[in-house]
Design brief:
Elements lengths: L9 E6 L5 E7 L6 E5 L10 H9 L3 E5 L23 H15 L6 E5 L2 H11 L7 E4 L18 H6 L5 E3 H5 L4 H6 L5 H11 L17 H4 L7 E3 L4 H5 L6 H6 L5 H14 L2 H11 L19 E6 L11 H7 L5 E7 L6 H4 L1 H13 L2
Parallel strand pairs: 3-4, 3-5, 5-6, 6-9, 9-10
Antiparallel strand pairs: 1-2, 2-4, 7-8
Helix pairs in contact: 1-15, 2-3, 7-11
């Protein structure tokens, strides 16, 4: 079990019949309507610890699993040359269908996904609206399923980034590389220091996070984002975030992620490594690895949906046009976009009270 864990949050396991023995955290009455909370990268079920009890006290059974490749969940392949297809989006959604069947929950009131959990939640709602009756997407906008015929870009964005006067590379391209997992696991500054810098630089605590809408999917526009998204070509992620390591005074002042909680992430990823989690990026960035999703071309999420993110989160603009597409073309029953001041990328940890308020407002509207 993760420690420290707030009293009232339980830890359990379930066989999802899709190859995983899923570890999950749970709070609330077993007979209450279910909320399924899906974490992102590099996160854990533990990332929901600040919102689970308030949601349970509001009358919900709250379930937060460690997804494939994360935490105490087992049964996944962590080899770069292993079973890559298991990390494709359709199978990640199947993981959650299997978990709900194992727990005999019936339909869930809402599936809530943060960061990479956001597209998983979106696909759950798209594929099984009978089981996932509403969707809350957080920090990563969902622009819809892939088209039936892949669009051929006018130029290679990765070549264009590398050709800039200050050569750059996209962080997802880096995460798909063979070197990325070892770079982070064996970061020269140490794993916990790497996590501290990474979480700091993507939070509202880093004053340079002042996001704005980009002009398009072009190298010169993408390069306006911080280097944790559009990296310097010759730096890995550990090197990228190291210059932004917060001071001892800043770490001490960080109430939303004190040292003992930060250590939970370092311990977990030291045990599991990063590779299976990074295989999600490999599947997402290569359309050939998710051909089944083309069957949903043009389909909209039919159930009620909303978006919550930090106002200081560059993630909301990292795919130009996705925020607008999510509300106008990717969903059929849009319930609003909500940006929380004083929060960066880790919105449910940085501003849990406001996150809970927005979640409950959405749920009441159902």
């Amino acid at each position: 079990m993760y420690q420290p864990l707030p009293e009232g949050i339980r830890s359990a396991r379930a066989d999802n019949r899709n190859g995983l023995d899923i570890h999950y955290l749970e709070a609330g009455d077993a007979d209450a309507p279910v909320l399924l909370l899906l974490h992102g990268f590099p996160e854990l079920s533990y990332s929901w610890r600040k919102v689970m009890l308030p949601l349970a006290e509001a009358g919900y059974r709250v379930i937060a699993p460690d997804q494939r490749g994360y935490g105490f969940t087992t049964g996944w392949d962590g080899d770069y040359d292993g079973d890559l297809g298991a990390c494709r989006m359709f199978n990640l959604a199947t993981d959650m269908v299997g978990l709900l069947h194992a727990l005999k929950t019936g339909p869930v009131r809402a599936v809530v996904g943060h960061d990479f959990g956001s597209p998983v939640a979106a696909h759950c709602a798209l594929i099984r609206p009978d089981l996932f009756r509403a969707a809350v997407l957080m920090s990563a906008p969902y622009g819809g399923p892939p088209p039936l015929r892949r669009r051929v870009p006018a130029s290679d964005i990765h070549a264009d980034l590398a050709a800039l006067p200050r050569p750059r590379k996209h962080y997802q391209r880096y995460y798909a590389s063979r070197a990325a997992a070892a770079d982070m696991l064996h970061a020269p500054q140490g794993l916990q220091a790497f996590f501290r810098a990474y979480y700091h630089v993507k939070s509202a605590d880093w004053p340079e996070n002042r996001p704005f809408e980009l002009g398009g999917w072009r190298a010169a526009e993408l390069a306006k984002m911080p280097t944790y998204y559009i990296m310097d070509r010759d730096r890995d992620m550990a090197e990228t975030v190291a210059p932004h390591m917060p001071s001892d005074e800043e770490v001490e002042a960080c109430r939303w992620l004190p040292g003992e909680e930060m250590a939970v992430y370092a311990r977990a990823f030291r045990q599991t490594g990063f590779q299976c989690a990074l295989n999600w990026y490999r599947c997402m960035t290569d359309p050939a690895l998710s051909p089944e999703m083309r069957a949903f071309a043009g389909a909209r999420i039919a159930v009620p949906a909303t978006f919550i993110a930090g106002a200081q989160d560059w993630g909301i603009h990292q795919v130009p046009g996705a925020l607008k597409a999510m509300a106008e073309t990717a969903t059929a029953d849009w319930r609003g976009t909500h940006l929380i001041e004083g929060a960066g990328h880790w919105v449910q940890q940085e501003q849990p009270a406001e996150t809970v308020r927005l979640l409950l407002d959405f749920l009441k509207g159902l």
